[in-house]
Amino acid sequence: MTIRTTVFGENVHEQTSQVVRDLYPNGMHSTIADALNVDPSIEASWVTLQMPEHGLTVEKLAATDVLVWWGHAAHGEVKDEIVERVAKRVWEGMGLLVLHSGHFSKIFKRLMGTPCALKWREAGERERLWVINRNHPIAAGLPEKIELDMEEMYGEPFSVPEPDETVFISWFQGGEVFRSGLCYKRGAGKIFYFRPGHEAYPTYHDENVLTVLRNAVKWAYNPGPAWTAVTDAPNVPVDKALEPIKERGLTIHAKGAPGLR
Residue 242: which residues within 8 A CB-CB, separation 6 or more? Predict the structure, then answer.
């Protein structure tokens, strides 16, 4: 089994901030992909916002089992047509990992259907991520908590749908708490939101964080054939019904008319 994984990186802060360049000289996307490739069952590559079609061509997505998404400063620059393309692949069964400030990405908001808003503070606070779902596959091999010496605070309320499962809850030095590891399913695709990952701190050099990412890729992988993502509402004529039926009663639609939208 090889899980074909694509890491999308915004690649903006790496170009504008020396702090970020020092921490991630080859880009955050490259660091994450390299860490995933440590696992022999994962084959990770990366794309960036600046590439044609953001690197997320029809062909690339068709060859992607799990997509990892990191964005922050340029959510609005992601083309809507690419967002819809990614959403369709998730409905078909592609896994999606959304990291840190990707909570405000177009794709996450598209799939959640909510504002995905939260409170935040950038003060280099200690973060303690408690593993509250010890038997979850994403928590495999982890201690009871992950300690990050410096991170950006995210605080509740987090305006997302109630998750199917919660794996982590964070506590911050300033007192706030946050649901930091949330699992969802949309169509045939699994989605995992993981909070840590502020670009000004060395979070993606922490081995426990990287273990979470590798576990999450495996959890999100769907080995089954792709679903057909139905985005239309076809009108099935009476004479095409699987069993013979007679039309009766009043109707408001003309024969063959599309559904109302």
Answer: none
